[in-house]
Design goal:
198 residues; alpha/beta; Trna Endonuclease, Chain: A, domain 1; 4-stranded mixed beta sheet; 8 helices; 12% strand; globular
Length: 198
Amino acid sequence: MDKKAVMKANSAMVALYYDVGSVILDRQIQEGWGARVIDRLSLGLRKTFPDMKGFSPRNLKYMRAFAAAWPDRSIVQEDFYIDLLFYHLKLRCYVVIELKAVPFDASFLGKLNFYLSAVDDLLRHPDDKPTIGLLLCKSKNKVLVDYALRGFNRPIGISNWETEIVKTLPQELKGSLPSIEELENELSKNSKRKVSAR
């Protein structure tokens, strides 16, 4: 599938979810709707659009929260991509990781902070701990990093990253992992299987 088509479809879906959430918010303000209305709206949308997914009461509540968190629709029409997003089960929090193949720049923290806010507002459950941000750069100047992080109250870390994992791998693991050649062979086998299955 064409990557641009997928991105357009994804943008349209986000805009639709935002619009549905805005309608719910407006009607709740104007008409004093309660939670049961979301259930009825969910049922009505699923009957009207049986081929569309994502109109469960739970998703409609997420749509409402999404619209409430971002009152300016123009931000919804922009595309933003978190490099890596994980959920840490033991810490009970999301972890946002931004990867930069260049030396640290203080402006990177603004984007990371934006992602942390979005994840906290849109994904984080009230029982979860605050989202952790990790910025991995090619290199960093400690003084610059210290000044850039001053005043931040969020859990954010900045570190260098290694392009060759073998250099930092503990000795006992080096022999137990496959070589690059073995990985490439396995990947080429898998891609050949997928092509022949079509």
